[in-house]
Amino acid sequence: MEYLESRVAMVNDRLESVIDAVDPDALSDELGHVVLAGGKRVRPAVTILVCESVGGTPEDAVDFAVGVELVHNASLVIDDIIDRSDIRRGTPSAWAEYGYGPAIIASDGLLGEAFSLFSSNEQAMQIVAESMVELGEGEATELVARPTNEAEYMTLARRKTGALFRAAAELGAVAGGADPFTVETFGEYAERVGIAFQIRDDVLDATATASDLGKPAGHDAAMERPSLVQITDLTPEEANERAKHQSEQALAALDATGVSQTDARGYLRDLAEFVIVRER
C-alpha cells in the first residue's frame, strides 16, 4: 500500500499548492473545504497509475491527475446543490457551509484551476472537454430524461461516471507518451471501472447507513434518482452481479493494452476488483 499511498500523497500535496495559490483567500478557503475534506482520490490515482504503466513517471502525470480531481469535485458541489445534500465526506457540503452563491462560484473556481492545469496540452484539453460534455448530458438525463430500464441506465452511468474515469485514464496514457490504441484501450478499461463504481454506489445507497457512507443514505429513493435498484426489479445482489460484469470487461481491456506487468498495472487490476466490493 505504501506504493499507492505515495502517489496519492503526491496528488494531495499538489492539490494543496494549487488551492493555496488561489486568490482571494475566501475563494481559496472554499475550494479547500471542498477538495481537502477527504475523498478516495480514485480518478487521480488512475491517471498516475496508467502513466506509469505505459512507461511514464508520477511526476509526468500529477498535474493532469490533480485536474481530474478538481473537475470531479466541481461536479460534486453542483450535485449537492441539486440534491440539497448537506453532508459530503462527513462534513458540511459547500452550499450548506457557505450558501448557494459561494458554492456555485467554488465549482466555477475548481473548473478554472483544472483547465489551467490541462491548458499546456491540446490533447488533454480535448479529452477533458469531451468528458465534460458527456458528464453534462448524464446530469441532464438524470434530471429530465430519466431512464426507465436497464439499458438506459447503463447509458446514464457511462455518461455520469464512466466518462470522467475514461478521461482520467486517457490523460495518464497521454502523459506517459502512449500511442492512440493504448490511450483508447486504457480509456475503455477505466470507463468500465467507472460504471461498476456507479452501480456499486447505487447498491450502497440502498443498503448502507449514513455513518458507513459519510453522506446521507437512501438518497436515491428519497430524491427519486434513477439508480439501478430504483428503476429495475433487480435485487442488490443482482445489481452487484451487473457491477461484476463491468469489472470483468475492464480487466479484459486492461489485458488488451499489452503493457508489461508492473506494480502500477497490478494496482489497476486491484482497482477493477475493489470497486465492486467496497463498503463506502
From TrEMBL:
This is Polyprenyl synthetase family protein. The keyword Ligase does not apply. Gene3D superfamilies: Farnesyl Diphosphate Synthase (1.10.600.10). Keywords: Isoprene biosynthesis, Magnesium, Metal-binding, Transferase. The keyword Lyase does not apply. Pfam families: polyprenyl_synt. GO terms for molecular function: metal ion binding; prenyltransferase activity. It comes from the Archaea. Belongs to the FPP/GGPP synthase family.
